[in-house]
Structures are given as C-alpha cells and as structure tokens.
Structure to design on (128 residues):
C-alpha cells in the first residue's frame, strides 16, 4: 500500500522571497506567475508569505502573478500575505487599494512588517 508523501504532514505556510529588484514587463510577470503557482501546488501550501524585501519597483504587470496566486490560495481556503514591503512598493499597493490603509476597508492582500510577524499571524489565526 503506497501513501501520498504528504499524508503525515501539511504545509500551513510557505515563505517565498522575491529576488528581483524591479518587477516589470509581461515576460517577467508570466515567469513569476508560473513559478508561484507551481511552487504553491507542489508544496500544497495553505498560505503563502511573499517577502518583498529586495523589491524596489512593481509595475502593473506585476499584479498578475500576485492575483493568480491569491486566487489559487483562496480557492483552497488559504491566504496570500506580504512582508517586508519597501516604502515605494507599499505606496503602489496602497494607491491601487490592494492593501488596506488606515481607515480603509478590507483589501485582497494582508501585510506584515516582517516575515516572522507574518508567520506568527498565520499561526495565531489558525489557533482561533
């Protein structure tokens, strides 16, 4: 009798660090989309934290891979969370209302200041 290799554990959170400093253009956006989705499916992650520490610029094409990953995770009851947003990238997400600003309504993406805080946030919510 063979069992799936993941029958004895699960991946409640997967942390991915984006290494590109500028996310722009359709070609890079498509590569990121394919890689994000492949890793999420392969790991069977319930939640994904994207570490944006090195990202200094994000064009509108860069939203596509994020929205695709968000959609996949939501279908599985999970979440996509951002961490370590630079001020420039945070401003882009705030202007487009993809993250909440003070006093604003709910937004598609959650943000934590650091990766450890994001991981703690996932585990805290899973306990409740």
């Amino acid at each position: 009798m063979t069992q799936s290799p993941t029958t004895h554990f699960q991946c409640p959170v997967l942390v991915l660090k984006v290494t590109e400093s500028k996310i722009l253009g359709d070609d890079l956006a498509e590569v990121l989309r394919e890689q994000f989705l492949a890793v999420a499916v392969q790991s069977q992650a319930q939640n994904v934290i994207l570490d944006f520490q090195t990202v200094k610029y994000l064009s509108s094409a860069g939203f596509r891979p994020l929205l695709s990953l968000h959609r996949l995770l939501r279908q599985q009851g999970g979440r996509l969370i951002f961490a370590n947003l630079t001020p420039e990238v945070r401003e882009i997400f705030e202007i487009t209302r993809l993250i909440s600003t003070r006093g604003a309504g709910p937004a598609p993406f959650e943000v934590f200041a650091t990766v450890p805080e994001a991981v703690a946030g996932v585990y805290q919510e899973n306990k409740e």
Summary: Helices lie at 26-43, 63-75, 87-95, 115-127.
